[in-house]
Amino acid sequence: DIVMTQSPDSLVVSLGERATINCKSSHSLLYRSNNKRYLAWYQQKPGQPPKLLIYWASTRASGVPDRFSGSGSETDFTLTISSLQAEDVAVYYCQQYKSNTYTFGGGTKVEIK
Amino acid sequence: EVELLDSGGDLVQPGGSLRLSCAASGFIFNNYAMSWVRQAPGKGLEWVSGISASGGSTYYADSVKGRFTISRDNSQNTLYLEMNSLRAEDTGVYYCAKDFAQGEIRPFSFDSWGQGTLVTVSS
Q1: pLDDT band at A42, cuts 50/70/90?
Q2: A61/B50 Cβ within 8 A
Q3: What is the mean pLDDT of residues A38-45?
Q4: CA quadruple B50, A59, B3, B77: dihedral, nearest 10
Q5: Hey, is the C-beta of A28 within 8 angstroms of any chain B C-beta?
Q6: Is the minimum CB–CB distance between A98 and chain B shorter than 8 Å?
Q7: CB pairs below 8 Å between A and B: how many?
Q8: Is pLDDT above 90 for A85?
Q9: For A24-40, how does the pLDDT look when each residue is reduced to its tens digit (9 = 90+)?
Q10: Any B CB within 8 A of A16 CB
Q11: A89/A110 Cα distance (integer angstroms)
């Protein structure tokens, strides 16, 4: 299986500041035939199901604010919240879909300082 | 508006069986692959199983292979998960999830989720 490792486990950031979450894959998530990176990011608030934020590593899902952005190469990926808002307090997960045994990272908890 | 209504979760003894259902509405169900994703209490997300839009291809996590069976009834817009030989480590909230990409042979990532149904395996 492809192992997804997120860092840090938790992050405390002031309102309006930048938050950066990292996700490392044990295998390349790049399909060279279509030049797509098979990685998604989700946000999960307490008591709620996850919400898709980013797919193809950098494409924002419908309705997601543009303060959320994704980037990365073949094995190293980043989710950036450019200006943290109070409603962004949540746990964030990366997920690979290159392999058809899909795996998630362990999650990063984002809190307000 | 997409709606996924998961149901069927319950308290069951180790070794027991359960069937989960997910009623879908608000989209063309037979155009999308679907999956089940679970979350143990206080833990992260674990993909469990997926099925192609037609139902002809199924996929399983190693942890449930041979014990769980995913299926779908496209005439009823419903997804199922048959769970047998349940273990304590199967305890958690089970979410059905719709794929974001139309017409694919396998799931990719998940743009709509049910509210989840709780499965507790305990004696």
Answers
A1: very high
A2: no
A3: 98
A4: -40
A5: no
A6: no
A7: 61
A8: yes
A9: 999 999 999 999 999 99
A10: no
A11: 5
Across the range B54-79, mean pLDDT stands at: 97
- Cβ A9 vs Cβ A106: under 8 Å: yes
Asked if the C-beta of A27 comes within 8 angstroms of chain B's C-beta atoms, the answer is: no
| DSSP tag of A86 | G
The whole-number average pLDDT for the span B50-79 is: 97
Q: How high is the mean pLDDT of chain A?
A: 97
**What CA–CA distances, in Å, run from B8 to A39, B50, B70?**
31, 18, 14
**Residue labelled with tokens 């395996």:** B121
- The pLDDT value recorded for residue B104 is 81
Contact residues on chain B for A105, CB-CB shorter than 8 A:
44
The length of chain B in residues reads 123
Query: Which one, of A61, A105, A112, lies nearest residue A90 by Cα?
Result: A112
Q: Do B44 and A104 touch (CB under 8 A)?
A: yes
Cβ-defined contact of A97 to B116 (cutoff 8 Å): no
Contacts of B113 in chain A (CB under 8 A): 49-51
pLDDT at residue B107, as a whole number: 85
User: Is A49 a residue whose pLDDT tops 90?
Assistant: yes
Query: Which tokens belong to B92?
Result: 């958690």
A residues 49..88 contacting B (CB < 8 A): 49-52, 55, 61-62
B window 63-82, beta carbon within 8 A of A: none
Q: What pLDDT score was predicted for residue B103?
A: 82
Which amino acid makes up residue A105?
G
